[in-house]
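Appendix B: a complete holo record

For completeness, this appendix reproduces one full record from the ligand-bound portion of the collection. The bound molecule is magnesium ion. The inputs are the chain sequence and the ligand SMILES; the output is the full three-dimensional arrangement of the complex, encoded as C-alpha cells. No fields have been trimmed.
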Amino acid sequence: MTVSASVGESAGPAASGEPLLKLRGISKHFGAVQALYQVDLDLPAATVTALCGDNGAGKSCLTKTIAGIYQADEGEIFFEGSQVHIRSPKDSAALGIETVYQDLALADNLDIVQNMFLGRERKGRFFLDEDDMETAAAETLAGLRVTTVRSIRQPVATLSGGQRQAVAVAKAVMWNSKLVLLDEPTAALGVAQTQMVLELIRRLKDHGLAVMVISHNLNDVFEVADRIAVLRLGRMVAQDNISAFDRETVVDYMTSGGSNRGVPAVATQAAL
Ligand SMILES: Nc1ncnc2c1ncn2[C@@H]1O[C@H](COP(=O)(O)OP(=O)(O)O)[C@@H](O)[C@H]1O
Ligand SMILES: [Mg+2]
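The structure of the chain with magnesium ion bound, as generated:
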C-alpha cells in the first residue's frame, strides 16, 4: 500500500511524505458496540481522501473523533508529525481542523457574514468591525468562486443546500484550516448543487488543504477523491490511491471487507 511507503522525506505537500494527519490504532466503543476497532488512517495535505463504508461502518464516529467530539478509547493521533491529544472541538479547531457536518451547524436566522464569523467574531486577535468582516467574507467566497449568492447579507435560511455547504466550506477556508472534514456534504443536494460542492472540494485541495470527504455516492468519490479509505464494521479494510480501485472493488470492500479483484488489503499498514 502507498501508506506503508509514505514514511520518509517529504518532497512537497502532495508527495508521499508524512501525512498531515495520521491515526494509528484508534478504537472507540459505545457500551457493547465497538464502533471503531484499531483504525489507521492517513490524511495527506493537498489531497482529497474519500472515507467510504456502509451505514453504521463508523464513518461519522471517526470524523467526530478527529473533531474532538468523541475521545478514542485507545490509539494515537499525529498532526504534522507530532502526537497530539484532541480532547474537545476547541483542540481540533486550534490545530486547524474544520468539520462540516451534514446539518452544517449554520445559524439560519443569521446572514452569511455573521455565520462565517460565528463564535470567533470577538475572540483572540480578531477585533473586526462589520465592514472588515463583510470584506473578509466576500473575499473568501470570491476566492472560492462562490458567485451564486445574491448578497452576503442574506439570511442563511434563504440559501439553497449547495449554497449553505459553500458557506460552511468558505468558513473553514477563511479561518486558515489545514484539514477539512466533510460528512456527507452532498447527501441532500441535487445534481447541480453537488457539482458545485465537488468543485469547492477541489479548490480546497488546490489551496493545499487535506480534505476528508464521506460520501455514499461512488460517482462523487471517483470524481473528486485522490485516495480511498474503506471502513467496514469499524475496521479499516482498504486504503490506497484511487487508481488502485474501481467501483466494484470499493463495493466489495464495503460489503465483505475484502476483494478478489486484485486490490491489496490494508494489513501492510501495521508496520507503521
Ligand atoms: N453516540 C453513540 N452512542 C451509541 N452508539 C453510537 C454512537 N455513535 C455511533 N454509534 C454506533 O457506532 C456505530 C457506527 O456509527 P456511525 O459512525 O454513525 O456510522 P456511519 O457514519 O458509518 O453510518 C453504529 O453501530 C452506531 O450505532
Ligand atoms: Mg454517518
